[in-house]
Amino acid sequence: MALDQLSTDPAFLAAYGAVVRQLREEHGLDRKELASTAGISYSYLSAIESGQKLPSAAVQEALAGALGIEASDLLARANGEVETVAPPVSHPDASVRASMVPEDASPMWMVPPGSDVAPVARMASSTLSSDPGISSAGALAELQALVPSLSPEDAAMVVSMARRLAGGSEPRRRTSSERRYRGSAGRALRTEMYQYFWTRYLEELEKQGLDWGHGRRPEPRSYFTTPSPIRGASLSASFARNRLLRHELYVNRGSRTANLELLHELEANRSVVEQAYGHSLVFEDPGRERRAVRIAEYRKGHISKTHEYDEYIDWFIDRGARMRGAIEAYLGTR
C-alpha cells in the first residue's frame, strides 16, 4: 500500500489518531493544551485524534515536538497498529528473494525524521528482508522488476536505501545509552527524567534568587515555560528535536497575523536585540501550518546525557537572563 493510500486509509488514520491521543494522555495533557503547544486549532486536533484526517508533515513535526518524540516515531507507531501487507511479487525463480537490510538495523533509520515515507519504508523493509541468502544478481533482478511499479517518491526512497547500504552515507548508530530512551520503555524513562531535570532547574532558579519559576511546578515533558515581559509571548527552555537544546521567546498571540507582526518588528530591531543578548539568534517562522513563531538559540544536548545536566541548567539560566535583557532593550526602542 503506497503512502497516499495510507494517508486516506480509515484504519491507518484511526491508528494514528489513537497514538496521538495515547501519548497526549500519557503526558497528562488535555486536547486544548496539546493543540496550543503544537500551534494548531482544537478542532484540527480533534479531527486527527478521531481518525478523520492525517496532519501535514509540518503539523506532524509540531505534534511530535509537543509530545517529546520524533515525527517518524509517530508514523511508525501508527503503522504498527494496522496490518500492512506488501503486494505480491512475481519472480522468474523461486530462489530470488531480497535481503537488503542488516539484521541489527531498524528500517526507520533509513528515513529522514518527520518524513511522510516512514510507512512505506516499513513495508519495503518487510518485503526486502523476508528471506536471507540472495545473490547480488538476484537482488538486482528483483529491483528491476519492482521499481517500474513504484511511485517516483517510493523509487527515490529505494535508491536512498541502497546508497546507505552501499556505504555512501552511513547512518549514525545510536549508543546503548540512547537506545534506552527509545520505544515504550524509553518514553516512560524520558518522562521520569524530564520531571527530574526540571525539578533541578527550579531548585537552581530558587538558589540563585531568580523568580522566573515562581508558582510553577516541574512537569514530565520536554519543555518548561515562564512568563515574558511581552504580551502574548513566553520564554521556554526545551529539549528540541535532533538532539538539541533550545531557549526561545515563543510568540503565540492568538493569530498568525499578530504573531508575524511581532516577529517582523523584533527582526527589524535585530541589531539591538542581538547586541543586548550577546549572541546571534534565529528568527523562526515554522510555516503556515503552525500559528506560533519564535526567536531562539540552539545548542547540542539530550535528556539521556544525565552527566551534562548541570551544564544544561547553567546554559538555560544564562540564556534566560540574556533573553530578558534583550527584550528590555527592544521595549526601550518603542
What does it look like?
With 334 residues, the chain is of the alpha+beta class. Among the domains are: 79 residues, 434 Repressor (Amino-terminal Domain) (Orthogonal Bundle); 154 residues, Yope Regulator, Chain: A. It is built from 14 helices and five strands. Strands 1-2-3-5-4 form a five-stranded antiparallel β-sheet. A hairpin with a 5-residue loop joins strand 1 and strand 2. Helix 2 packs across helix 6 and helix 13 crosses helix 14. The longest helix is centred in the middle third of the chain and has 25 residues. It is globular and about 65 Å long. The N and C termini lie far apart (57 Å). The N terminus is likely disordered.
Concise synopsis of the structure shown:
The protein has helices at residues 3-8, 10-26, 31-38, 42-49, 57-67, 71-81, 118-128, 136-146, 152-165, 176-179, 183-207, 256-268, 270-277, 309-331, and strands at 223-227, 233-240, 244-251, 282-284, 293-300.
